[in-house]
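#structure-requests
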Amino acid sequence: MIKNHLRQLGTWLTDLVFPPCCNSCGRVDTLWCDSCLVELQRLPLQPIYSNLQHLDGCAATTEHTGILQAAIHAFKYLDQQQLAHPLADRLGIALQETQWTYDSIIPVPLHISRFKERRYNQSEVLCNALMGVTGQPVKSGVLMRHRHTPPQVGLNRQQRLINVADAFIATQPLTGERILLIDDVQTTGATLQACAQAMRNSGANRIYALTVTAAPLS
């Protein structure tokens, strides 16, 4: 109990000296302010479609820039999990435009070591919020990242493909299933392709992928 009190005191002192700031606008005392939340909710869709191997369709709601880039950073690295709901709302609207037909939603998994560091899988949190929008079930654990890979940041497309090759396996048969794969960001699509290949090898019939953002085309 004494350790908990000391930890809380340390957190209070840190916040006093270095108060948290909104990850978008810099407003003090919050990691994501109400004004930026409203702006995020009003941001229109500008869908980006990609043709990726092993996928029957792939889309993102817009480019990975501006307030959405800031929101994903806060959601993914700063434990701002409440941002999953406005992000899932965007995904839900995008899904209506695609008219894809699928049976279940599957998140891109984290390796267990990365999960222990972060304490949550942002893609799974996003899927659970999306389930509230679409009513379609989430199947967590169906796809597993059985090989730890270095972060994709800083790698080119070919390096990313090699990095995640055979990194994923399906933990159960998916014969005939139609699947919606969800992740926060698509950069080159290497991770989505590797996940889709693992599910295709397990018998999946159709596989679609949807992300909140996609890296700007160079």
